[in-house]
């Protein structure tokens, strides 16, 4: 109730009063913002300093502790590999082996005296009833330490050394390092144990506590604390000492990985900031811990100061805003008078003068909605264009993102499947539906497919050519369940088409793609799968993973052969097209497919030829002079079909294309020659001219040679050399300037080419022409 009353009261205020409130807030907000930002910067600066200190401490601690551990391991290796120690362990204790025992004792004393770190040594003779030698502990003390029991619990692998942090087991005050003797054995003969007092480690690495209350803790790869300034924490698991800040009491016993310790943690009831660094040498983790109360103290003081300053400024700005709002309201009144001059004189004036401006803005909003509605009507055509560009591979990921946003289209799904639905009998479809009817049929077929595939993350389709619809389906996974769902929807769509239309379709579902920009590849795969229907039959749903490899190979090879035949025919290569056609006929005979399937295969090839001719502006009916599909279905055998294609249809198409292209080719080459003559003084290359006339390099080179009788490079050189010859004979222009004018980057290059062309260097040619008789 109170909120509703406050809202109604605020709405009843005049604009000038609202402006007063807003002005007051705007006056206070900068100060408040600056104070809070200063507080944030101070806190961030302190935390950044602490982070740097953390990194420095962790690096220093890592170096020092690595030195300490390297020294310990090195000393243990010296002892374990010493011949006297190995001999003593091998021969055993006793008066008979007193010499070996004395040598071992002297060796251990010498190594301990020269070591930069302090440690005690124990050697267990496992082969001699676990007899123990120690420079510090008595036999009873060693029994209490249960060293071999600890070693068995650590379960060492082969002869690897084992480090056991202090406090890991009850009554274990020292850090223990186990190593077998001899060193290549598997703890079967003797065991070397180095006892290291944690106080000696702390004395070696230095203080573990620093400014801001920061201290360092070291844990091994299993999460057990190795070194800490607090002896009670050594040997305990990190989970029992440190918890992430978001863990409650219920999660106190849960296992927390070392990666979960980054950021804010709790030790007891207090919060701490933690930074970790893992050692590459032994896998230990070095952890720096700083109390959060030390980091936020200065920030809290800045916030308190900020609020005090804001309170003082409120009194000052309240008076200033009351005067300033009167002047600030003047532009609003001027805007109202300018946009709406006496538009509704019969209407009573409002106190704040904004009602008419509100009506005017609503009119603009209505006009904007109408424009948006008209634009939305154009979205389907825009989407069709986007899909066609994707099919041709003409759009990058960035361009697709921008175009999809403009077309109000969201491309959902981690994977995209390309589904191609095509009428099984294209000739009948083409003859049954005229051009206007085909558009309606395509639209109805597309809508039926989109409704059938409704419910997937993304579904949209388009019609690339007659009798064919491409559907793009976005899915969140490429699992077997997702593929089975697509196959069932495709089967349902084919049933709907049989029920409501007078033709049947086959649907091919390509492999999952990870980007919409790759649908061109998926489309090619789906088309290859559709070619498979001519072997397994029509009215089918064909998927990439369900197709038989042998049949798919035949389908793919047949489809590739068809495309090559069409390519050769369009380029006038009758010999190769006849050879491929003969090979295709032989392959189909060996495959022993049904006659209807073979007929459908050649019908599909004629459809491809028809489509490619339409793209070049030609009509296959005009080229052949007959109804091809009727002629095709009137043939009775494959040899008869081969003779008709090779001897009648293909030559007729070649002649028709030649007649259509001669005039265009001649005109194109004339334009190219004019362009070269006008730009002979520039750097000219076949690639540059091909780009200028939107032609491929190979096609322009062949076309130029066929039409002009010379190569493009020879034509350019002849033109340039002719101009150079005229300038050399009739002018005193320096040779360097002549080289520049005809597009050569260096005089040496021009001299070389001119000598090859005329037989003489430019200077000698000019001199010879000047002194020639006449």
From TrEMBL:
Alphabetized PROSITE patterns for the sequence:
HTH_ARAC_FAMILY_1, HTH_ARAC_FAMILY_2
InterPro entries membership: CdaR_GGDEF (IPR041522), Homeodomain-like_sf (IPR009057), HTH_AraC (IPR018060), HTH_AraC-typ_CS (IPR018062), Tscrpt_reg_AraC-type_HTH (IPR020449)
* Residue span(s) of domain HTH araC/xylS-type: 670-768
Query: Lineage, please?
Result: Bacteria, Bacillati, Bacillota, Bacilli, Bacillales
Q: Which residue ranges run through the membrane?
A: 20-42, 304-324
Q: Which domain of life is it from?
A: Bacteria
Name this protein carries in UniProt? Helix-turn-helix domain-containing protein
- Originating organism: Paenibacillus hodogayensis
- Record's Pfam families? GGDEF_2, HTH_18
């Amino acid at each position: 109730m109170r909120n509703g009353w406050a809202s109604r009261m605020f709405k009843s205020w005049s604009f000038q009063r609202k402006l007063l409130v807003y002005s007051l807030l705007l006056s206070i907000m900068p100060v408040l913002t600056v104070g809070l930002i200063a507080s944030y910067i101070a806190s961030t600066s302190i935390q950044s300093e602490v982070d740097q200190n953390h990194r420095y401490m962790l690096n220093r601690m890592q170096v020092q502790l690595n030195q300490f551990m390297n020294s310990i391991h090195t000393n243990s290796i010296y002892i374990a590999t010493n011949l006297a120690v190995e001999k003593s362990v091998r021969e055993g204790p006793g008066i008979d082996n007193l010499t070996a025992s004395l040598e071992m004792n002297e060796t251990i004393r010498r190594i301990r005296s020269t070591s930069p770190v302090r440690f005690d040594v124990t050697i267990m003779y496992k082969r001699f009833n676990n007899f123990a030698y120690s420079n510090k502990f008595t036999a009873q003390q060693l029994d209490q330490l249960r060293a071999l029991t600890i070693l068995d619990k650590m379960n060492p692998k082969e002869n690897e050394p084992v480090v056991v942090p202090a406090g890991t087991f009850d009554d274990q005050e020292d850090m223990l390092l186990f190593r077998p003797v001899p060193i290549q054995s598997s703890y079967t003969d003797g065991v070397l144990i180095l006892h290291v007092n944690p106080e000696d480690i702390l004395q070696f690495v230095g203080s573990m506590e620093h400014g801001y209350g920061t201290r360092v803790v070291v844990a091994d790869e299993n999460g057990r604390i190795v070194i800490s300034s607090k002896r009670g924490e050594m040997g305990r698991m990190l989970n029992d000492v440190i918890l992430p800040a978001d863990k409650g009491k219920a999660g106190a016993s849960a296992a927390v990985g070392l990666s979960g310790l980054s950021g804010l943690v709790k030790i007891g009831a207090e919060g701490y900031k933690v930074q970790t660094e893992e050692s590459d040498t032994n896998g230990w983790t070095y952890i720096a811990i700083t109390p959060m109360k030390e980091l936020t103290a200065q920030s809290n003081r800045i916030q308190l100061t900020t609020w005090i300053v804001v309170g003082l400024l409120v009194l000052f700005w309240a008076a200033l805003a009351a005067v300033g709002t009167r002047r600030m309201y003047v532009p609003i009144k001027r805007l109202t008078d300018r946009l709406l001059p006496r538009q509704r004189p019969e209407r009573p004036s409002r106190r704040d003068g904004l009602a008419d401006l509100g009506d005017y803005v609503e009119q603009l909003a209505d006009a904007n909605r109408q424009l948006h509605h008209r634009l939305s009507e154009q979205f389907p055509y825009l989407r069709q264009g986007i899909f066609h560009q994707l099919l041709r591979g003409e759009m990058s990921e960035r361009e697709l993102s921008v175009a999809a946003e403009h077309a109000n289209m969201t491309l959902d799904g981690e994977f995209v499947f390309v589904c191609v639905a095509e009428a099984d009998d294209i000739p009948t479809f083409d003859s049954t539906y005229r051009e206007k009817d085909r558009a309606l049929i395509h639209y109805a077929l597309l809508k039926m497919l989109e409704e059938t595939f409704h419910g997937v993350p993304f579904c949209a389709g388009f019609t690339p050519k007659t009798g064919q619809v491409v559907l793009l389906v976005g899915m969140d996974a490429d699992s077997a369940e997702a593929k089975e769902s697509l196959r069932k929807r495709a089967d349902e769509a084919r049933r709907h088409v049989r029920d409501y239309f007078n033709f049947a379709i086959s649907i091919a579902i390509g492999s999952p793609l990870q980007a919409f920009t790759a649908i061109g590849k998926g489309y090619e795969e789906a088309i290859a799968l559709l070619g498979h229907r001519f072997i397994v039959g029509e009215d089918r749903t064909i998927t990439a993973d369900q197709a038989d490899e042998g049949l798919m190979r035949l389908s793919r090879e047949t489809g590739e052969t068809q495309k090559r035949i069409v390519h050769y025919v369009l380029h006038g290569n009758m010999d190769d097209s006849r050879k491929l056609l003969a090979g295709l006929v032989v392959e189909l005979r060996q495959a022993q497919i049904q006659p209807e399937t073979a007929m459908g295969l050649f019908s599909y090839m004629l459809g491809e030829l028809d489509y490619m001719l339409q793209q070049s502006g030609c009509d296959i009916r005009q080229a052949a002079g007959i109804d091809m599909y009727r002629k095709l279905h009137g043939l009775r055998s494959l040899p008869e079909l081969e003779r008709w294609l090779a001897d009648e249809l293909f030559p007729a198409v070649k002649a028709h294309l030649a007649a259509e292209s001669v005039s265009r080719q001649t005109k194109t080459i004339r334009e190219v020659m004019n362009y070269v003559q006008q730009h002979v003084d520039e750097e000219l290359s076949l690639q540059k001219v091909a780009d200028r006339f939107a032609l491929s390099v190979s096609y322009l080179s062949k076309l130029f040679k066929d039409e002009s009788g010379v190569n493009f490079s020879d034509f350019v050189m002849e033109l340039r050399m002719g101009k150079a010859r005229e300038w050399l004979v009739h002018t005193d222009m320096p040779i360097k300037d002549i080289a520049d004018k005809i597009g050569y980057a260096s005089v040496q290059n021009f001299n070389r080419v001119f000598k090859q062309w005329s037989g003489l260097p430019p200077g000698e040619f000019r001199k010879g022409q000047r002194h020639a008789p006449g």
